[in-house]
TrEMBL record:
Pfam families tied to this protein: SPASM
Organism field: Sphingobacterium detergens
Stored InterPro entries: 4Fe4S-binding_SPASM_dom (IPR023885), Aldolase_TIM (IPR013785), GRASP-with-SPASM (IPR026497), rSAM_sf (IPR058240)
Protein name: SPASM domain peptide maturase of grasp-with-spasm system
Ranges of residues in domain 4Fe4S-binding SPASM: 245-302
Superkingdom of origin: Bacteria
Length: 360
């Protein structure tokens, strides 16, 4: 251990302090590491010092603990040792996008299907890059082809597709469909008889068969570690903006334009309102600015800058800055509990009509 040289965190390793513990988010490797708050404080206060000086500061009372801390940091390649400071500038944490929209979540219903060419054209005008299409009823390959063709020659670079199992579509047909549409980056088939991870043969598009039944927009918004993301883009965006709704538009089954299809507030219908008109509404953009540092409980959570968010279903439906209803994590006890059986959430669950929704 290079105890004589000053240590520094790599610039891509960002510290986030929670109520009871902290994280080091390794944005280059897409990982995060849980650490005690005492190590967070040590890294903030003593970065640029050497290990021997750190030990001396504590009168060598905690040498073993400090050695354990630095062994972890070295093993995970979170720090480096150098006496030259000015060659290692901090990471630029500013975030911006030239696009009016970056993401669109669209639930496929008759109104949406009939107006889809216009929707795709408007998304192209707004320079939207990512689209997620969801269906709760089986769709034929022909109908899906019609939807995907609408994005040919557009600014959209990624289409994620979530559809129910259709016994009339074979595994080979799904694979061929994915390879025929180069913008598809993932296909999730819900309500399947079994869990299978597959991929298309040519472009290796992930094809995920899931037993979970996604019956409506009420199934959205569950917070769990499986959807945490540690990347420079998502981390820097979350510092200033909402990690779910920023520069996002949702269109529900009936064509209503919303921040998210699961939300109740509508800003017009796609049949008579342009997307640009809806997203330029002051109230529409207000939710873009609800970052995790202003949301109750989330602001004390060590996962807040790798976590998704949900403003559609809240612990307190009367408070737009309330914690997501479908999050079972408590940053004050560092424990996960099932949210759907929490007695303190029953009134909110009833308010949103979630009582009959099966949650896995």
């Amino acid at each position: 251990m290079k105890t004589e040289l000053p240590f520094r965190l790599f610039a891509n390793c960002q510290l986030v302090k929670g109520a009871e513990r902290s994280t080091i988010c390794d944005l280059q490797r897409g990982k995060f590491h849980l650490i005690p708050n005492s190590l967070f404080d040590l890294l903030v206060e003593f970065q640029g010092s050497n290990i021997e000086d750190v030990k001396k500061h504590f009168d060598n009372e905690y040498d073993d603990t400090i050695d354990d801390y630095f062994s972890l940091l070295i093993k995970e390649e979170l720090i480096f040792f150098s006496s030259i400071h000015n060659l290692f500038p901090p990471l630029n944490l500013q975030w911006d996008s030239p696009s009016d929209l970056t993401y669109a979540l669209i639930d496929i219903g008759p109104t949406v299907y009939d107006n889809f060419l216009a929707i795709a054209s408007q998304l192209d005008e707004l320079d939207c890059k990512y689209v997620e299409l969801r269906s709760y009823q089986p769709l034929s390959i022909d109908k899906l082809n019609t939807l995907l063709i609408s994005f040919d020659e557009s600014t959209v670079i990624s289409v994620s597709l979530i559809v129910p199992h259709n016994e009339n579509i074979s595994t080979l047909e799904w694979k061929s469909f994915c390879d025929n549409h180069k913008r598809i980056t993932s296909l999730t088939i819900h309500s399947s008889a079994q869990e299978i991870n597959d991929q298309s043969p040519e472009y290796m598009v992930p094809i995920l068969y899931r037993t979970e039944k996604i019956s409506s927009e009420l199934c959205c918004g569950v917070i769990h570690p499986g959807v945490f993301v540690s990347s420079t883009e998502s981390f820097t965006e979350s510092l200033k903006f909402n990690s779910c709704l920023n520069k996002k538009v949702g269109i529900d089954l009936d064509g209503n334009i919303k921040n998210c299809p699961s939300m109740r507030k509508s800003f017009g219908n796609i049949s008579d309102t342009k997307l640009i008109e809806a997203i330029n509404h002051d109230e529409f953009k207000r939710s873009w600015r609800y970052n995790k540092d202003v949301i109750e409980v989330c602001k004390d959570c060590e996962f807040r800058h790798v976590c998704t968010d949900c403003r559609a279903f809240l612990d307190n439906p009367e408070n737009q800055l309330s914690k997501p209803l479908k999050c079972g994590y408590d940053p004050y006890t560092c424990t996960w509990e099932p949210w759907s059986t929490n007695p303190l959430k029953m009134n909110a669950i009833a308010h949103y009509g979630l009582s009959d929704v099966v949650i896995k």
